[in-house]
Amino acid sequence: MPSTGPISRTRAEVAALAQDKHERALVSNVISPQDIGVSYDHIGGLEQVKELLRQCITYPLKYPHLYQEGIAAEAVKGVLLFGPPGTGKTMLAKAVATEGGATFLSVDASAIENKWLGESEKNAKAVFTLARRLAPCVVFLDEVDSVLSSREHGDDSSHGTLTSVKTTIMQEWDGLRTTKDRVVVIGSTNRPFDLDEAVLRRMPRRILVDLPDATTREAILRVSMQQNRMAPDVNFTSIARQLDGYTGSDIKEVCREAVVHIAHEQAMRLEQRDARARAGGRGVGGAGA
């Protein structure tokens, strides 16, 4: 049986699926798989992480008929990506959706909170009800610790609201495990030890996305610069060794600044050439012409 192809939806079609104001507020965060623009090939290194994600999310989304028998039907419904900022967690989540032919629904977890009584819970519920209609769907909860932290790390002033929101999210999440809807939640955090134990149980796959080693840094450099012309003496291995401690995001910015610096130098030379041409033209015509 062939793989299930991605479902393409326009923004208007997504909006038509939203059934209330809480779901409509999420429409701008929805990206169809063909519009995400990030695949595993766009991510340098992290080969082990990508293979883990293929096995626990991409393949079940893409080939659902292979995961219908017995205990295999209890597919992983939650994955936690944790590690320092800028290491590629968001890009990985997008790549998972692209490769699995799934719609990508990105939610800043802190945006779920609302000062009005009961609204936060409705916002949380809307994430899952809309995701079911968009299935196959990858729900990406960025900074998941902001609403799903353990009680000890919470803010006492908002403890009641956060507890209610947490309960709503976990109830909806549990619903995914009792249906055949192809919806997977990926949470990202820089503070995994702040998360509630009950939340961690719903994300049995916890994957560290750490600072890149030298080999991974070189891979990131090569992927970042693959669309640019390079001098033959550029040594990516040597450059990678000098970038110890840099995140993937840092390395991409280094590449961008290097390319832009060259463009600036070329622009300055053109500006000087044009200035000389203008000065020469005035000389021929004379100052009083």
Automatic annotation (TrEMBL):
UniProt domain AAA+ ATPase: residue ranges: 75-213
Q: Does the keyword Thylakoid apply?
A: no
Report the SUPFAM superfamilies cross-referenced here: P-loop containing nucleoside triphosphate hydrolases
Tell me the Gene3D superfamilies matching this sequence. 1.10.8.60, P-loop containing nucleotide triphosphate hydrolases (3.40.50.300)
Which superkingdom?
Answer: Eukaryota
Which cell locations does it reside in?
Mitochondrion outer membrane
Quick one: a GO cellular component term?
A: mitochondrial outer membrane
Q: Chief location of this protein?
A: mitochondrion
> How the protein sits in the membrane?
Single-pass membrane protein
What one GO molecular function would you report for this record?
Answer: ATP hydrolysis activity
Q: Which UniProt keywords apply?
A: ATP-binding, Coiled coil, Membrane, Mitochondrion, Mitochondrion outer membrane, Nucleotide-binding
Protein's name according to its UniProt entry: AAA+ ATPase domain-containing protein
Upper classification of the source organism reads: Eukaryota, Sar, Stramenopiles, Ochrophyta, Dictyochophyceae
